[in-house]
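Record type: ASSEMBLY
Status: queued
Input:
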Amino acid sequence: MAQSVAGRVATDASATELASEDLEPIYRTILLARALDERCLTMQRQGRIGFYAPVMGQEAAQVACGWALNPKDWVFPSYRELGLALTRGVTPGELLNQFFGNSSDRLRGRQMPNHYGFRDRNFVVSSSPIGTQIIQAVGAALAARRRNDALVTATFFGDGATSSNDFHAGLNFGGVFRTPTIFFCQNNGWAISFPRSRQTAAKTLADKGAAYGIPGVVVDGNDVHQVFRAVREARARAVSGEGPTLIEAQVYRLGPHSTSDDPRRYRTESEVAEWKQRDSIERLKHELIDAGRWSEAQDAELLEEVRAEVATAVNRAEAVAPTDPLTILDDVFASRTPELEEQRRQLEEMLRMGLVKP
Amino acid sequence: MTEVTLVQAINRALRTAMAADSEVLLLGEDIGVNGGVFRATEGLLKEFGADRVVDTPLSETGIIGSAVGMALYGLKPVAEIQFLDFIYPGFDQIVSELSKFRYRSGGQYPCHVVIRSPYGGGIRGGLYHSQSTEAYFAHTAGLKVVVPSTPADAYGLLLSAIFDPDPVIFLEPKRIYRSVTGEVPDGDHREPIGKARIVREGADVSVFAYGAMVPPATEACQSVETEGVSAELIDLRTLVPLDVPAVLASVEKTGRAVIVHEAARFCGYGAELSAILAEKAFYSLRAPVSRVTGFDTPFPYALENVYLPNAARIRQAIVETAKAG
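Status: finished
Output:
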């Protein structure tokens, strides 16, 4: 029976360097993310889920960052954080329920795939507008400080988001109020078709921190050690009252922006091939083998294991009943207004007459 | 009971809420040392400190977005947007985030932010200090929209808004911030959100108004008595959720309706009211529904008194509606 490693965090809660015994579970989490990602792309093409935004190429940055955080820290993700979600204790089954929008989906089928959230894992529900979570993370950090809760908020976004209003507002407020916040930018090279080189004339995205009085750090996002170290240092600064840090993790989106995108229109195969050479999976595998902690045979076994875990989770999620159509009128407000009650009665009637079908 | 102006009632409600609950905090531009450009937060910095009366950098996105984050965490933030005309940089945070958090999370993340903002014309404010854009917010599912017209309502409704589980857009009629006075209760006395108030009873015509249009509508209702017309005036107080039973009960009695708002007419809040009357009170209506509103133009500076509905225009509409049909 396959065991998910979801929810694992670093063995040592305060070390700046990644412990060698953490490498194997990190590697397994990355492989699980990759396996789930590939399966979801396939399922979207088969028409089994409506949409998918793959994370391929960014798993190591996310998993290493998640490993460096504390479970009590609040994360404000974008919609491309599968690797991060696994480190927060979210299971493939929970994610798949959201992708199918079924009756076990915590979001009650309200959002497109990838826009999940889990309050009990301090994983705030994401939205599609770019960058809006950045300033929210600053507000939550102010609230945590008001309650004397010793935690950080970490917000996740891409290179495109660094041009958004909310990036500016977030870094400015974070700098002014010295909030315990980690701004974790995954520069994956492309904002749909728009390259990083044209998103800003700044030399690096991390450079933008300087204008807000915030340290900016560039790391190789495919190097779990670099990412872990940068996040741990940023976290230490944040909890000691020294304010936020902007981390630019340089990665590459190996897949399309989403299943509605054809990246062949705007980038070359050779660029993709070049970045595939730097992929974290091969790097980590060889690091483990070179350290005498891993073998090709174990690797093949693990790959089978994570694929089986994904297959089992898919089968289970696909068998869950669909969402009850009457729930469409819930959660607009804490309780239904008289107008929503009236519309609910109308919907009941429409369903009874067969005028609408889920 | 104390006699105060409307803006003083706002100030008192904020003080009452902050004293009652340490998780209530204020944020906005110039609200601390300066006490707010209209003095709504006067004295609160000194009383509650800079952690709870937070002067922010000049960014509506920042104010509203950080208030959203605070509310997700569980605090009760009250954000001030200096003029409703300046809210648009934060519109994305309101429409895409604040209004949808509870829904999009399947109920996991309530987001109870109050956004207070002075709205409306009549202060020589021109295009960008005068607008009455309540319809944008009323049209967005997930937001409650409240517009008081008296000190007592401002006090009681703001307290309700701050302790409401849902996001509330609280629109303050700045034109009458100081021109209306009235008694407000002491202590945590709340007016329920979602209930209209009958300002005066009448038999012939129902007049619906809110915010800064209530005083001229009151004057008009009084003046038509000389014409032998008995007008009933309803102050809606809450635009979302609307007190539909109160609206229908009045029109079922009078058979005639005049709707007053200072916002532009096309797709204004009066259009929804009018549609509700057409759908639900059609057989009670004895005359066409009449709207007295601003023009479908941007808000003009020199001609603001031409733009804004006044008692004379409202009076004319009441008389014509009373005689029609």
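Annotation: Chain A touches chain B through 47 residues (CB under 8 Å).
Annotation: Residues 324-358 of chain A form one domain.
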